[in-house]
Amino acid sequence: MYLPIAVLAFYSFNRSPYSGAWEGFTWEWYEKLFSDERILSALQNSLIVAFSAVGISAVLGTLMAVGLARYRFRGKSLYRGISYLPLIIPDIAIAVATLVFLAAFAIRLNVWTIVAAHVVFCLAYIGLVVSSRLTNLNPYLEEAALDLGATPVQAFIQVLLPQLMPGIIAGCLLAFVLSLDDFLIASFTAGSGSNTLPMEIFSRIRTGVKPDINALSVILIVVSAIVAFVAESIRASANSQHLH
After folding, report:
1. How far apart are CA 139 and CA 69, in angstroms?
2. pLDDT tens, 64-78?
3. Phi then psi for 23, rounded to 5 degrees?
4. What is the pTM of this model?
5. What is the per-residue DSSP string for 136-196?
6. Membrane-crossing residues (predicted)?
């Protein structure tokens, strides 16, 4: 499963501008990436989209998870199902639906329309992770805070939120990776001059895969893997502490 990634990493150090023949080891392609204006612009757009989408989703996703876990209201089951639909709906369906919605309201495509589209699936992932964290918490701690005179807001901020923080951070890191790596939804909702990093990679490989694209792909894979590993470590550590 990981052999193609290993081959990709191997040829990213190839001195030859053509990936098919090995001509020696070099760091040249990695150095060129940091002086490529198109790559840097795409990276800036990707980071803006990822941080913005995750920031918005962290607030809404946490509130959604707490509301579904702590309160009863009419249509709760239906709302829960709709909230987590982006986890199972194909990306192409989300992309087309978002584009049709934006076109219907004559909204101009730009970086912020990508952010809005990414909030849709980031919200579901963060809500799911926070919900799983909520099931392992002691509900009596929040009730004790209320009995001792705390307001519901104070109990939420000072008692519940600190306990949820590992889940929130893990969910945010997972959503960050998904947003950073997304190509399909971003390509449907991006305006002119708002390419993200995966879109830039795709536009370049249409003329042939070069070592600089290999190098960029390796960096993207490594960063995504590190962030995913940290997210899983935080989640596992939080669950382990609760069990002990």
Report:
1. 10
2. 998 888 788 888 888
3. -125, 15
4. 0.83
5. TS-HHHHHHHHHTT--HHHHIIIIIHHHHHHHHHHHHHHHHHHHHH--HHHHHH--TT---
6. 45-69, 81-105, 111-130, 213-231
